[in-house]
Amino acid sequence: MKKMNMIKRWSLSIAVLLFSGWILIPVSIFSQPKDINTRVDSVLALMTLEEKAGQLSLFTNDWDETGTFIKKEYADYINQGQAGGLLNAYGAEYTRKLQEMAVNHTRLGIPLIFGYDVIHGQQTIFPVPLGEAASWDLDAIERSARIAAVEASASGLHWTFAPMCDISRDPRWGRVMEGAGEDPYLGSAIAAARVRGFQGQGFGNADAIAACVKHFAAYGAVQAGREYSTVDMSERMLREVYLPPYKAAVDAGALTVMSAFNELNGIPATSNHFLLTDILRNEWGFDGFVVTDYTAIMELMNHGVASDTADAAKISLEAGADMDMQSAFFQVALPGLVRSGQVPEAMLDEAVRRVLRVKFELGLFDDPYRYCSVEREKTQIMKPEFLDASQDMARKSMVLLKNEHQLLPLDKKVKNIAVIGPLGDSRRDMIGGWSAAGDGEKATSLLDGIRDKVPGANVMFAKGCDVTGNNPGGFEEAVRTAEKADVVVLAIGEPAWMSGEATSRTDIGLPGVQQQLAEAILKTGKPVVVVLFNGRPLTINWIDEHIPAILEAWFPGTRGGSAIADVLFGDYNPSGKLPMTFPRSVGQIPIYYDMKNTGRPFDAQVNTSSKYLDSPNEPLYVFGYGLSYTQFEYSEIFLDKNEFTLNESVTISVKVKNMGNMAGEEVVQLYIHDQVATVTRPVRELKGFRKIMIQPGETVKVSFRLTPQDLAFYLQDMSYGCEKGKFTVFIGGNSRDIKSVELEMK
């Protein structure tokens, strides 16, 4: 008898038949019942052990000079029903061909799931996530993820390996680019917003993609800031600082979670039952599937917790991992482990159920090709409104770090402008790392943006030097160019490849001879504006001390150059605030705003207090910091009550006045400090923020509602609750420059 594709959209409903070893199943079992669990179980009942293990196996697509291609061995896996999905395969026509292999050439026709690192855009590229976090604009962040999902789904993708929810206090770790910075409250709000953006209102219209929460857990705390390194911390630190953003993303409905590369307290995350089962599933109620990071199961042998392929597959499945990315250890080992009785088939089945359930939720069983429309791909990529949103997000992300004598905004009537620096005319660097299918040649460079903004000006360019390397050969030309200008815009920082995965640095200053270039340009006596490109906080002490104006642009995306020009020339008033502390030197790392006091806090008059001999304790720029082209004045803080009980809340208000002549947005930030507790508490904790537009001369009242839950923490016995006592409430425009008032909970 000819092999039949069991999970077709059949039109007849017939009884279950057994014939020549094959089971014929009526369509009603697969496509008619509304309950997804029933449909999942109907598929699971048909599967062999090899097919089950295949559903738990994710393989990579590859690239060469001809474009994307699938390796023969992976194509064979698909044709044999031994693959559950592919990563790095995109394009509506290409993914359709791959999906046809799974649906038409295999016994059961179970569709593949296609995943990709759609981190900050698919083809329309937005600022890197750390830059987006600097906007403190949750609606804009959700919108950028929504647009990324529309483009990705039109490109045949079902799934993105984002958002990265790792809190990090160490800018040596290059992957801080991919996250939301150092604070769990801000990080949680952004994680939820990005999940909502990716997954939209659901998957009915095939313009949404499944989010993947990563890297679970605490990957941002790798020792020495070194990629793939060890993590070791107390459970208190884990629960109070590192877990909240992951939970926020799960609570927002994320369908999948990715286990981290790191170990935590001696157990690699991929085989960590405490993380993947006790916390993720049992405490948080997560019912999606867990995918490992790339080859993470194989790496259990390097960690020294698994002796061979079968051992690694067994302990990761037992811990709660459901899909093996790229190792093929599940595919190779699980059938034999089940047959030998070392792994219960029920455990394997539960992992398969989770994977199948997500495929059903995405609608792939009803229509495997619903994400493979070439017509839709032609109309849903880089639409004008998407590009406009990218430019707007980039403007919102920029942080004005310094602006002496109101050098910025620049006058559009300026006649001669020198754009100098290795990043001044680099389109590729505008889109940053992890830029998915983005094309850097379609981006606007800083030079492009300025020339478009002031077409009547003489805009000159000199590279000066490379981003890296020690060759000052271009300095003379750069100096000559600067001397002809009325103002110099100096474009310096990191190249795109220097931020992201596997880009840890021990020196986070300006690479190469860029500072020497800045010194040479400053000696011309011309007004200098530094535009900084980077995916992490940098140590830029000399720049801060000597350059009058500094604009943090991050890697701003496809329309980055246009967005920078909008800010430089005052068409947009910068409103970004730092989501991560900028240290003075690597010797201060880790440094973050919500550190705890010591028994000997710093006192300049006391020699034996907590301090450095060669540096201030304070960072270069604090968390939440960012200037505007206008000035905001804060009133004293108003409380609707000075005391409250466990059954009450407090309304906290402040008036903010725009004292300048330009409308501007201000991020009003609320912090608290528990003065006396049974467990030491941070000196400040962010508990709320509002981003508001204020017209010149206008005063706006901003109110926050504080509840006992906002004051809760993990007590001595690790139960979660709050304690009565006195609290200090702070409100201001950053974590340092703030008003304060005392509040008591009785």
- Helices, by number, come to 22
Shape: globular
Percent of residues in helical segments?
A: 25-40%
Say which CATH homologous superfamily of the largest domain is assigned: Glycoside hydrolase, family 3, N-terminal domain
| Radius of gyration, whole Å | 27 Å
Percent in strands: 15-25%
Strand order of the main beta sheet, please? 15-20-19-18-16-17
- By DSSP, the count of extended strands is 31
Any idea what the CATH architecture of the largest domain is? Alpha-Beta Barrel
The major β-sheet equals:
6 strands, mixed
Point out poorly predicted stretches: 1-33
Terminal CA distance: 78 Å
Tally of individual domains: 3
**SS-derived structural category:** alpha/beta
**If you consult CATH, what is the topology of the largest domain?**
TIM Barrel
Mean pLDDT: 94
At the first level of CATH, the class of the largest domain is Alpha Beta
Q: Which helices and strands occur, and which strands form pairs?
A:
Elements: E1 17-19, E2 22-24, H1 27-31, H2 36-44, H3 49-55, E3 57-60, E4 62-64, E5 67-69, H4 72-79, E6 85-87, H5 92-104, E7 113-116, H6 129-133, H7 138-154, E8 159-160, H8 184-199, E9 212-216, H9 235-251, E10 256-259, E11 263-264, E12 267-268, H10 273-283, E13 289-291, H11 300-303, H12 309-319, E14 324-325, H13 329-339, H14 345-361, H15 374-379, H16 384-397, E15 399-403, E16 416-420, H17 427-430, H18 446-453, E17 458-462, H19 475-483, E18 487-493, H20 514-522, E19 528-533, H21 541-546, E20 549-552, H22 560-568, E21 632-634, E22 638-639, E23 643-644, E24 650-658, E25 664-674, E26 685-694, E27 699-706, E28 713-714, E29 720-721, E30 725-732, E31 738-745
Parallel strand pairs: 3-6, 3-14, 6-7, 7-8, 9-10, 10-13, 16-17, 16-18, 18-19, 19-20, 23-31
Antiparallel strand pairs: 1-2, 4-5, 11-12, 15-20, 21-24, 22-24, 24-27, 25-26, 25-30, 28-29, 30-31
